[in-house]
Specification:
With 184 residues, the protein is mainly α. The protein folds into three domains: 68 residues, no CATH class; 40 residues; 59 residues, no CATH class. It has ten helices and no strands. The chain is elongated, with a radius of gyration of 23 Å. It starts with 5 loop residues before the first helix and ends with a helix. The model has no long low-confidence stretch (mean pLDDT 94).
């Protein structure tokens, strides 16, 4: 079984970045998965476990170097990734908390994620909450006026989605025409 050389890792990184935007941590994770698959195949082919472990260690260091090289070349930009993802998630009705959690899971540093949420093209929390209401057909987008139990359930739904109580109440109390105008 051939070794995983730096050129193969570089080609794998380019192939991934040609199809997907990624953070540096995400690219390292993709390359690590490739190395792990290679190690599993090498073990099944009967290679020496110590040789496999040494090759995995070398390839992991090389993968980190490839990811760093992609950052220096501008092919990977965590700030741009965070801004684009925050804009998309907030526009789809995700709360600030949910967006920050998603970006953290993707490997974006907390300060970059917070800065991305403050971008002028990123919808604010109230707008995102209205989008969530529209998607779930609650609040101003409900078919009928809610009773107290239904309203409490809607508040719970928005709270589980990460919206604060004040924003959720304001969104639920917004008249439908105003909500539609705000989202237009």
């Amino acid at each position: 079984m051939p070794r995983i050389d730096d050129a193969a890792l570089h080609e794998a990184a380019l192939a991934h970045l040609a199809r997907f935007s990624a953070t540096e941590a995400g690219l390292r994770r993709v390359l690590s998965n490739r190395i792990r698959r290679w190690a599993r195949a090498a073990g099944q082919a009967g290679q020496d476990p110590e040789a496999i472990a040494a090759e995995v260690a070398r390839a992991t260091a090389a993968a980190a170097a490839v990811a760093a090289r992609m950052v220096r070349a501008g092919a990977v930009d965590d700030a741009a990734f965070a801004a684009a993802r925050a804009r998309r998630l907030r526009g789809a009705g995700r709360s600030g908390r949910a967006t920050l959690a998603h970006l953290a899971q993707k490997g974006v540093a907390a300060e970059l994620a917070a800065a991305a949420l403050q971008g002028e093209e990123v919808p604010d929390e109230f707008h995102a909450c209205l989008v969530a209401c529209r998607r779930r057909r609650i609040g101003p987008f409900a078919a009928a006026a809610p009773g107290p139990d239904t309203r409490r359930k809607w508040l719970g739904t928005l709270a589980r989605a990460g919206f604060g109580g004040e924003v959720a109440r304001r969104a639920l109390d917004t008249p439908r025409a105003e909500a539609e105008a705000r989202l237009a």
